[in-house]
Automatic annotation (TrEMBL):
ATP binds at residue 43. Residues 61-86 are annotated as: Disordered. One of its GO terms (molecular function) is ATP binding. It comes from the Eukaryota. Gene3D superfamilies: Phosphorylase Kinase, domain 1. This is Protein kinase domain-containing protein. Residues 14-86 form the Protein kinase domain.
Amino acid sequence: MASTTTCTRFTDEYQLFEELGKGAFSVVRRCMKITTGQEYAAKIINTKKLSARGNHLLQRGAARGRRPLCGGRRTPPKDEVPLAGH
């Protein structure tokens, strides 16, 4: 029996704030879970800048269930870790 993944937009559940860091393919921003007010750091990957292999590896990792991607949109993380000191 196949399992189904419900896709939601990240911004439906989290509010994004300022940039905390930046790399060649991603940016890290402070965010807050709207329902709880808990703050987190979200790593946002620009898949347009990834090579075909990099994009494949990202999709393969998502397929293993840690952070599923749905049509380019990420579901909220299952392994949320609050920002230290918040």
